[in-house]
């Protein structure tokens, strides 16, 4: 089988290479295969498919470290509070804030409703589906007892091969994730299997729901009395049903050789799959499902589909080859690009937008942020990986009814997109959560990129309702100021940087441009559909407040007193999104922007920056024609990417912080594929760069 799948892979790659690739992608990708000889304490190697990921230690399983098994569907609710008058989610009333002369109800924690507010923030939370590790016949083996440890993640095929020896006996483990089902396929080869002293354990944790950040490990393995597991086994398969309160799902285990499964002890949720003596191979699959379905196939069947999927992933869409043999910065950037592409296919391509820590561990209780959708998904469009983008972009349509409800509840027209979300579209209470506005025009950016690629009736229809709903909200939210005769944004609101006084924040520069951009695209959409553009859209678009400018530079918001010191320069430098992230706005002035860039460079607290700030800075530098500067930002000392390709969270968030990864690919994709007015690529002038297959940005 190994021969035939390798053949299939090479054949597919060759076909694509003949069709449209000049770069030898396979050899570049494989140069960055990860080779480890010990477990990483917090950043596991992973296999997975975007909706499901399985993190492993040096054994290729979760033997010594309980790295997580996370999915897009595994969630749990803790019991509701028992505090009087706070026992139902309908007891939560949020807070009323004055907003242009009226009280508007915001989804914010209310001190008088502390317990139910916190419950809504923490529930549902994403769960760790289970742990799968090597079992050493009851012996207490630690990682130090293993010698000759060696592990390779073959990026091109998406498989992990691990080997080590234990008391002189070699053990080989292959670990593969299915592209189609939430299945891990494992093949273990060792003489120790023949003696019955090697097997596999499965263990199931409870969900605490207590930690905003559950990193590096998710779940409680010691709260055994709070949940149940039951085992149903047949000759070559078993189903373990795990029930945590209202959440229930199955782990379906299927094996090929002669083996049996048993519960390790009634006091735990640990099960052991133990091969009968004789064979030196144990191959099995374990599939996590909310409802048991048909068989997920054998190890070899999963391996074949995974290898084909991964080769296809690498061989299609865009690719960039940097001068890695002559320049160490180019080499580091290429490393990050390749590892990031692997990690985002595993962690950032599910049915819902990506959690900031992907499927590695939990941040914000496992929820995802709708303002971050831009950073998580935009790169797929410029890299021409539309199938992966398509998996979750439907979120705007799915959440449209709740977005309409949100706007209506606050007395606005249209659909107001939420913030920190679970798959139902419910947004978690939070002061910042309820007052950010930069998530609103994202669908316009995506729709327009999609239309540039697929200028069809289908694309127009697909986005019409969402763009109309969101534009109606944006228009209704903009407030006509009688004295200045322009439309103001806020107060109260939070701009991209989340540390201003919301009651004083009005007309932030980036949001003004993004509002105009969004309304412009929504209007074009109506025109393309041969419908008339609502007059109110045009009125607001043409009369949005002017950009706030002080001393010939754009400033964070209108009237800010100290724009270049303190808090104003310590959070996301959203101002620089005016050119790079966005195409130049009709009111954009390049001289003013250059002055702004100089101010930002001279004053910003770069030690406090993290995540997508660096791609943002790089995109602005690239749009100003400075490829060297752009690369410097991407490789800035505060923008570290660890040995397995995961972006370090720094002091503010745990590792990994995937918006940094997705932002890197967006910035590189724009530098490689260009934008309207620039055919690209734009990298340091002395770099020989080869690019293929990119989609131009706006
Ligand atoms: C493990 O890998 C590291 C980094 O590549 C290397 O420095 C070290 O010598 C290796 N250790 C063993 C025991 O092979
Ligand atoms: C958690 O509770 C909320 C509110 O009752 C409900 O909408 C949601 O479906 C529940 N989720 C899970 C995973 O039980
Ligand atoms: C709960 O609500 C009832 C009815 O509004 C009220 O009389 C009672 O004081 C409340 N109890 C607490 C503990 O707030
Ligand atoms: C903003 O104003 C509201 C009243 O509308 C008040 O409750 C709130 O505390 C203020 N927030 C800040 C940060 O000043
Ligand atoms: C297993 O061995 C480790 C040291 O290798 C030790 O810390 C641990 O307590 C042992 N566990 C048991 C259950 O004996
Ligand atoms: C390795 O072999 C030694 C000597 O036979 C034995 O004492 C030890 O327990 C073995 N270690 C493991 C992890 O099996
Ligand atoms: C259970 O484990 C957690 C860490 O995972 C620890 O904080 C807690 O104290 C443990 N509880 C008990 C009852 O042992
Ligand atoms: C487990 O259940 C007990 C009894 O209901 C409860 O006191 C405890 O808080 C629960 N543990 C967790 C982690 O939820
Ligand atoms: C790599 O390229 C960058 C950008 O041109 C340049 O600044 C740097 O000196 C080069 N490094 C080496 C080692 O050539
Ligand atoms: C109208 O705009 C002016 C200038 O920006 C501002 O000072 C004033 O507060 C605004 N009016 C209201 C009622 O918000
Ligand atoms: C709009 O009208 C033009 C000209 O009549 C026609 O070619 C086009 O197909 C129409 N587009 C839509 C979306 O109906
Ligand atoms: C751009 O702003 C500068 C001042 O920063 C001004 O001198 C120039 O006239 C402006 N350009 C345009 C086209 O408005």
TrEMBL record:
Domain of life, per lineage: Eukaryota
Signal listed as a keyword: yes
UniProt key word Signal: yes
UniProt keywords, alphabetically: Signal
GO MF entries: catalytic activity
UniProt-listed InterPro entries: 6-hairpin_glycosidase_sf (IPR008928), 6hp_glycosidase-like_sf (IPR012341)
Gene3D superfamilies the UniProt entry points to: 1.50.10.10
GO biological process: carbohydrate metabolic process
Protein name: Six-hairpin glycosidase
Organism in which the protein naturally occurs: Bimuria novae-zelandiae CBS 107.79
């Amino acid at each position: 089988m190994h021969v035939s799948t390798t053949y299939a892979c090479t054949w597919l790659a060759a076909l694509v290479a003949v069709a449209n690739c000049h770069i030898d992608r396979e050899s570049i990708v494989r140069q960055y295969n990860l080779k480890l000889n010990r477990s990483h304490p917090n950043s596991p190697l992973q296999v997975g498919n975007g909706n499901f990921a399985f993190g492993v230690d040096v054994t290729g399983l979760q033997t010594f470290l309980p790295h997580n098994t996370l999915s897009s569907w595994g969630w749990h609710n803790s019991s509701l509070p028992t505090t009087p008058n706070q026992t139902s989610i309908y007891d939560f009333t949020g807070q009323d804030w004055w907003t242009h002369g009226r009280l508007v109800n915001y989804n914010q924690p209310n001190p008088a409703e502390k317990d139910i507010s916190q419950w809504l923030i923490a529930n549902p939370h994403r769960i760790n589906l289970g742990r799968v590790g090597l079992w050493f016949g009851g012996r207490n083996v630690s990682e130090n007892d293993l010698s000759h440890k060696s592990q390779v993640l073959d990026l091109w095929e998406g498989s992990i091969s691990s080997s080590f020896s234990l008391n002189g006996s070699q053990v080989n483990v292959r670990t593969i994730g299915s592209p189609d089902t939430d299945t891990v396929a494992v093949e273990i080869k060792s003489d120790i299997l023949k003696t019955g002293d090697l097997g596999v354990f499965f263990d199931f944790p409870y969900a605490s729901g207590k930690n905003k950040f559950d990193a590096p490990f998710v779940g409680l393995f010691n709260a055994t009395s709070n949940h149940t597991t039951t085992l149903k086994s047949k000759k070559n398969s078993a189903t373990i049903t795990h029930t945590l309160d209202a959440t229930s799902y199955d782990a379906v285990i299927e094996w090929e050789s002669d083996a049996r499964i048993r519960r390790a002890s009634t006091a735990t949720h640990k099960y052991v799959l133990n091969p009968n003596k004789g064979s030196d191979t144990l191959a099995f699959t374990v599939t996590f499902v909310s409802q048991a379905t048909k068989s997920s196939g054998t190890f070899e069947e999963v391996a074949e589909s995974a290898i084909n999927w991964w080769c296809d992933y690498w061989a299609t869409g865009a690719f960039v080859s940097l001068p890695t043999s002559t320049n160490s910065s180019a080499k580091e950037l290429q490393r990050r690009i390749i590892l990031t592409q692997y990690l985002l296919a595993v962690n950032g391509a599910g049915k819902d937008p990506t959690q900031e820590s992907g499927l590695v561990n939990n941040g914000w209780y496992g929820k995802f942020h709708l303002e971050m959708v831009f950073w998580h998904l935009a790169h797929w469009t410029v890299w021409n990986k539309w199938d992966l983008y398509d998996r979750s972009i439907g979120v705007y349509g799915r959440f449209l009814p709740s977005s309409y409800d949100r706007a209506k509840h606050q007395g606005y027209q249209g659909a107001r997109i939420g913030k920190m979300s679970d798959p139902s579209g419910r947004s978690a209470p939070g002061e910042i959560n309820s007052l950010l506005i930069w998530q609103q025009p994202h669908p316009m950016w995506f729709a327009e990129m999609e239309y540039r690629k697929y200028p069809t009736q289908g694309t127009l229809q697909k986005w019409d309702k969402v763009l109309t709903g969101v534009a109606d909200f944006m228009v209704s939210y903009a407030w006509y100021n009688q004295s200045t005769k322009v439309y103001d944004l806020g107060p109260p609101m939070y701009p991209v940087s989340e540390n201003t006084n919301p009651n004083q924040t009005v007309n932030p520069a980036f949001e003004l441009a993004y509002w105009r951009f969004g309304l412009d695209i929504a209007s074009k959409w109506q025109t393309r559909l041969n419908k008339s553009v609502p007059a109110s859209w045009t009125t607001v678009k043409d009369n949005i407040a002017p950009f706030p400018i002080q001393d010939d530079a754009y400033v964070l918001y209108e009237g800010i007193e100290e724009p270049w010191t303190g808090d104003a320069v310590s959070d996301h430098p959203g101002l620089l999104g005016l050119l790079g992230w966005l195409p130049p706005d009709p009111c954009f002035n390049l001289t003013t922007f250059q002055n702004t860039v100089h101010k930002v460079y001279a004053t910003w607290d770069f030690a406090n920056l993290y995540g997508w700030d660096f791609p943002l800075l790089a995109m602005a530098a690239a749009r100003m024609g400075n490829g060297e500067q752009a690369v410097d930002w991407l490789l800035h000392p505060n923008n570290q990417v660890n040995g397995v390709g995961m972006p370090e969270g720094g002091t503010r968030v745990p590792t990994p912080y995937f918006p940094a990864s997705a932002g890197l690919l967006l910035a590189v994709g724009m530098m490689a594929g260009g934008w309207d007015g620039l055919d690209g690529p734009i990298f340091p002038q002395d770099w020989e760069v080869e690019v293929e297959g990119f989609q131009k940005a706006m």
